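Practice problem: predict the structure.
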Amino acid sequence: MRLGSLWEVSVKLTWHDTDEIAWALAEEYPDQDPLKLSFPSLHRMVTQLDDFGDRPDRSSEAVLEAIQMAWYDEVK
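Answer:
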């Protein structure tokens, strides 16, 4: 294994990465008001992010709310 290849490894986001997910959503959906999203819609948007790599069933309402509030803080 080449040393340079270590830097090429892509780390995927998980449900624990609420701030990073919020930033990615703000970048991906700049015109979206996060407070107007239902949790099912937010869940779908998170799982469709290119950098997201966690299992969809590992989310919860509390995690989605934390992502929603972090996203709101990012864009306000």
